Amino acid sequence: MRQITYSAAQQHYMEEALFEADRAAWIGEVPIGAVIVHEGHIIGRGHNFREHANDATLHAEIRAIEEACATLGSWRLEDCQLYVTIEPCLMCSGAIINSRIPTVFYGARDPKAGAVDSLYNTLTDSRLNHTVTVYEGLLAKDAGERLVTFFKAARQRQKAAKKARKAAAKVAAEKSLDTSSKS
Ligand SMILES: [Zn+2]
């Protein structure tokens, strides 16, 4: 489902999710953030934490769901809205369904892993016992730009590291040549 105009409150919650994405970027994690709103209050927030925890399941949505469940003291997140900067993957879509979240707002699509619109339609599959109302595109540009910037910087770091390794190898080779010529 698409919605062209969003309320100021909806934009505010997505900005909070984008702030979570920034927190991920600051610590070198892929910048994806999420918040869960219940009766106008943010009751769960999360950003990607996979690298720091060495835990493949620690996506932004999972962390936000865990916190929201703890806040409400319930695994059922009925009457909640999830805001996430990037289209949820298969794992997170599964968690959204299992926690009974009725409404999801996401920013940009993920053509390689998105399980809401891009590769699968998990959240709106009527064969499941729970379906979700989905709004895509809210502050999508801001969400996408964060990913592009992050991966561009990561590639530059990789390039610089490769150059440094090559330079170090050259110095080492010259050094060994130097010592062998002396002996
Ligand atoms: Zn995920």
From TrEMBL:
Name of the protein in its database record: tRNA-specific adenosine deaminase
PANTHER family (alphabetical): CYTOSINE DEAMINASE FAMILY MEMBER, TRNA-SPECIFIC ADENOSINE DEAMINASE
MF GO annotations: tRNA-specific adenosine-34 deaminase activity; zinc ion binding
Keyword Zinc part of the UniProt annotation: yes
Cofactor(s) recorded in Swiss-Prot or TrEMBL: Zn(2+)
Reactions accelerated catalytically: adenosine(34) in tRNA + H2O + H(+) = inosine(34) in tRNA + NH4(+)
Domain called CMP/dCMP-type deaminase: residue spans: 8-117
Coiled coil start-end: none
InterPro entries given in the database record: APOBEC/CMP_deaminase_Zn-bd, CMP_dCMP_dom, Cytidine_deaminase-like, MafB19-deam, tRNA_aden_deaminase
Function: Catalyzes the deamination of adenosine to inosine at the wobble position 34 of tRNA(Arg2).
Organism: Levilactobacillus acidifarinae DSM 19394 = JCM 15949
Chain's gene name: tadA
